[in-house]
User: Fold these one by one.
Assistant:
Number 1:
Amino acid sequence: MAVRQQTAAARVQPPITERVTVLAWLKHNLFSTWYNSLLTILVGYLLYLVLVPFFRWAVLDATIAGDSKAACSFGGACWTLVKVRLGQYVYGLYPEDQRWRVNLALVIAALAMVPLFLERFRHRLTYAVGLVVIYPIVGYALFYGGWMGLPVVETSRWGGLFLTLVIAGVGITASLPLGILLALGRRSEMPVIRSLCVAFIELVRGVPLVTILFMASVMLPLFLPAGVNFDKLMRALVGVALFSAAYMAEVIRGGLQAIPKGQYEAAMALGLGYWQMTGLVILPQALRMVIPGIVNTFIGLFKDTSLVTIIGLFDLLGMAKLIVTDPQWLGLAAESYIFAAFGFWIFCFAMSRYSQHVERRLSAGERR
Amino acid sequence: MTGGSAEPIIIMRDVHKWFGEFHVLKGINLEVGKSQKVVVCGPSGSGKSTMIRCINRLEEHQRGEIVVDGIELTSDVKNVEAIRREVGMVFQSFNLFPHLTVIENLILAPMWVRRVPRKEAEELAMSLLERVKIPEQAHKYPGQLSGGQQQRVAIARALCMKPKIMLFDEPTSALDPEMVKEVLDVMIELANEGMTMVVVTHEMGFAKSVADFVVFMDEGEIVEVAPPSVFFTNPKSDRTKLFLSQILQH
Ligand SMILES: Nc1ncnc2c1ncn2[C@@H]1O[C@H](COP(=O)(O)OP(=O)(O)OP(=O)(O)O)[C@@H](O)[C@H]1O
Ligand SMILES: [Mg+2]
């Protein structure tokens, strides 16, 4: 197992001495041989060619003061745009005086997630399941409103980073359980269930997300009886969730296949039923093995949410595009897109780091 | 075919099994009484594992009848689960759950299958770990134990379900020689306490000292059943003689 090899390797490596000087480090890593030195210099020069102008543009010559394009006259980046329109990047067209509702929901989410990080809390899994069921209802009630005097905010006005997080959050929380069920179904001994799961996975994986979103937004209404009107966002959510569930299923199936037959036999011999065996013995091991693959799918999904712009929803990227079409801010596309990219990067990087942390924690406890 | 007068707890009548075209079990007849110890031996591929795995339905037989503790094994899931609760099994490759600590391995089935409260399950688990002489390993993961220790944990895990019957499929063949004894000692103790045991093994010393009768299998058939005193000194069939001469050589 890769995990075992890693920990074994970690144990035989010599302890890192702390007295290594900067010079020694440089010599050892960058200038150890003549061709290494040459490469170092070459790469350094290329970085200089690219980074210095960028740094000059993005920082030295940049403007952030003022509140209109007129303030930007140094030839560098005009971050004034981002500063002035920050609210729209984050909340889209959500009414300004109602934005507190989004913030409140975020705070609730952050607080509700605290127990998940407490190692001592025994019922984390049950709690997480409860959270996944209850939180979307709370969130929707807050975002949409229409009760206790909260004005209704139509989903068409949701946007920006907020919308990105809603879509990614729903996609992630729905795709994991769906993916698990699909993966189990694909390995089921019941032919009907197995073929259904295979058909679903292969069909969905075989088409681009854009097609699924298009079908969900354009074709679905054709099949529904007149008068039944599914919300556009709702349709996008369903599309994204099903799409990522199909990918997730294949990642998880990889983990399931790596579990030795003896584990199933031991569980059965102890009298565990199918769901007990799956939930207590097989899945905990299988999921652990494929954490990198799962997180990879999450990150892919997070970025894929930007495709919803093509069906007229304005996520973070959509807002970045919309904002620069404003005649007041024409010509500032670079700033706008760089800022959006930065927003995506922060979240994806955080997910990646968190998964590394989880992996390390799990492999520290158990050694095969 | 039986080796004693005790009330039978495992009955196999004319059991047949095929893997596809391949006829693995060709009419097995065997009765094991309460508290009896049976050692099964025979050449590789003779169907020993398949036979004892049929007793708790890890393999399905296609013809004949198997009755365990008064319950007939059919495809009825209820019966299968009822029998598995009463039958413990120990595997050649231990098959401990690597993501759980030793104690968690032990309490899993009692808590989820028998619905024993955690505290009670933990107490039982600790007492069993003491019986297999490794209480100090309770909070380690299986991967941190030696093979002999792992196999003793596996025995304790099966005992946690308070089974009436214990099946062993070559419990010592994956172990280094110096660890074989610690596992056999635990098994001998268990035998002395009156557990019904079916043991596939080539440890002839174990067979001589604890078995009520030895079953010799070859090519999917039971060739000979005899108490160890007769089996080792005066086997009837030529196949048994050949097998014994091969196995006693080393
Ligand atoms: N799942 C299976 N599918 C097909 N053939 C199998 C399967 N399991 C076992 N066999 C075959 O059935 C025969 C009996 O196998 P079994 O494992 O019962 O033998 P054994 O007596 O336990 O041998 P060993 O001493 O090597 O463990 C062997 O020839 C084996 O190849
Ligand atoms: Mg075998």
Number 2:
Amino acid sequence: MSSSDSGSDEAMTDAQQQKGFVSALEMPDVPSQKLQPHLELRRTRVLCNADAPDNTDTIQYSGAYASMGVDNSLRLDQFANNFRVEVKRLTEDEMEFDMVGIDPAIANAFRRILLAELPTMAIEKVLIANNTSVIQDEVLSHRLGLIPIKVDPRLFDYLSENDKPSEKNTIVFKLHVKCGKKGPRMTVTSDELKWLPSGSELLKASEDSNSSSRAETYTSFTCSQDSLPEFSSNPITVYPDIIVAKLGPGQEIELEAHAVKGVGKTHAKWSPVATCWYRMLPEVVLTQQIEGKTAEVLKKKCPVGVFDIEDLGDGRTRATVAKPRACTLCRECIRDGEEWEKRISLRRVKDHFIFTIESTGALPPEVLFTEAVKILEDKCERVISDLS
Amino acid sequence: MEHTSFGDQRNATFSLTEEDHTLANALRFTLNQDPRALFCGYSIPHPSEARVNVRVQTTGEPAREVLKDACQDLMLMCQTVRSTFDKAVADFKKNP
Ligand code: SF4
């Protein structure tokens, strides 16, 4: 008894002591630093209602909640603490990861850069020496342009207008296929493209036929590319097995293809990704307890199996949300009348991105993403130096 | 890049060439998050011209400085993203 008394006495003094140092911000009539739940929901979630998504904006303005005493401005330390990346899947040419705690404005910038502003090498010029196939020269050239080339674009320079094609900015491939006169029809695939490390082999037609100087080719390499350390052990190849053309008996294609560095903004063939997209994390919330028959119906409704049924022990069952991540937001579960809309709330988490990158093979997907972030940094740096 | 401000450092429009939504939208976010920015927005005057106009109005500081700080913030965010991402990838590669 006495010991418990002294204990409560101590607690009293502690509380009093703390009271002495209470900060003005923690007094009950001062607004708290936290948003009220309904506002927090609107700030952080997109509500996917039966008719249309609601509340899709992000609240960017720093003073949006000033009247409630909540600061909405950016603090970098806070950002660094909250920001999180979790890799879900990573293979040679595909990756999926979760990026949490970032505004869509910036996540979208990364996506746009990946699609349109990361350079790769692609065939830009095709010198056709002979083409008797049914595919027109233009179509054939276009098809060749879209073939992904497996080479690190960072090892090359851009070829600008006044530059001569050299070993630093051009990759030359040769394609020479002929279908036998009596043989069956032939399929030409991208493997037939042979890398010419010493540059073009086609001679430019010179006006002066008896000129003593060596006949010029279409490139001016100072050395062979396979003598360079970066290519000596790994020759440049293209993505195999892509059908380029079909040849009938006696038909022939002979050409040279020159690949240069470029970005997806100019032409999609330079895009380093097959595709790159993100979706926001789905959140499925049961606003009421759904039991028995209704739970069964709900479980059946969802085509991707988001819901499961849980045994409550006393013979009753209830629906649970087992795999919210799989939700495709088809809204099938809230389609059958208003009572369903009341039972289930479909939402998306505004700052949680499920990011997928599919590389075409020039660089692995994780390198592509880091390069994309670097490009955004460079853009900022450019603006800063222009302003200074 | 032009800087058009009419005798008033606080309000300015910056015309960024060779840029598009990618940078402008990200910058608008960091600008909006800066308490010194009273207003900011961007527009692309013509879709076939590679140019965006970023409008910044501030509470007192020169608009140029606020925009510069916004770029700085964006850059620091990118650096955080990059280091966090690299770490996550390295972790995943170690134990997938
Ligand atoms: S919206 Fe579609 S996928 Fe998502 S939980 Fe409902 S039925 Fe399933």
